[in-house]
Amino acid sequence: MDEQLQEDWLEAQLRQETPYIDDDGFTARVVQSLPAPARRRSFRETILICVTLLASMVTYFVSDGGRFLITAVYRLASMPVLFVGLVAICCALVLSAVAAGAALSNVREQR
Amino acid sequence: MPLNDADLVARVLLDDDHHAFAELVRNHQSAVRGLLRQLTRSDFALADDLAQETFLRAYKNIRSFRGEAKFSTWLYRIAYNCFREEARKRKELVGIDEARLEAQQDPQTVDPALKHDLMHALQLLPLPERSAILLCCQNGLSHDEAARVLDIPLGTVKTNVLRGREKLKKTLAAWGPN
Question: Could you read off the pLDDT of B118-140 as tens digits, one per residue?
């Protein structure tokens, strides 16, 4: 057998594309075994809390010791019970919708 | 548009992005598992365990990937190191009954398909030659890249490829072009 021919033939056989191995859940297993992503140190929460506290303090002093709150409570007490109940239900519905939206977007992000 | 390896690696580095890393695993799992299957002489379960370990190490050490070599070359190196460590633990993998395998080097071995015979012939080669042949001839790495993966001198890689090819030619003589 011609040496060069045999050489070329072997080369071709070896270079023949090796069969693709189906993932078959391999990637999922690897990803599952990865350590949880390192939680990056974020100052967002701290900043938000500080800004809220600062805003509350400013409002307290500007509104003369929170007098507007007492006025609002008096006004609410003088309103019909049915109206107050309806407002409370509406607030609860709006809050639930916002919470559901946030939960759904979180689930989508995780996928 | 699918992202290339460099973009995916950048995402993993910046955001610890598991989705990006999963994409890298999907892109390279077949090649890495294929290489390890060959190195472990078709022990599929062991090869998959080693492949999983390879990707886990790649994730943990991704900061050490500087992009000088291809990502696949870097992965092959980790895979080969995983294999070597496992082989040291299970000595039988490296010194696997060489006498029995030598005895099987009969080209007349009855195998129905050439592919099967080629795989078999590859498995008969000693580890250094098998690794060099697999990386250079099957996975298309240059001799230089293979030397980096195997952590041996370039000249040794060339010698191992040559020796391995000679042995393969002898073993597969019956199949050659007519």
Answer: 778 888 888 899 899 888 888 88
Domains and CATH numbers, chain B: 1-96 (1.10.1740.10), 97-178 (1.10.10.10)
Q: What is the mean pLDDT of each successive set of 10 residues along chain A, which is 111 residues long?
A: 69 72 92 80 82 91 80 86 90 94 78 57
Q: Decide: B23 and B4 in contact? Cβ < 8 Å.
A: no
Structure tokens belonging to residue A46? 């701290």
Tell me the C-alpha distance between A60 and A66, whole Å: 5
Best of B49, B169, B170, B178 to substitute, by most chain A Cβ atoms within 10 angstroms, is: B169
Residue A79 distance to chain B (closest CA, Å): 53
- CB contact, 8 Å: B22 with chain A? yes
ipTM above 0.90, yes or no: no
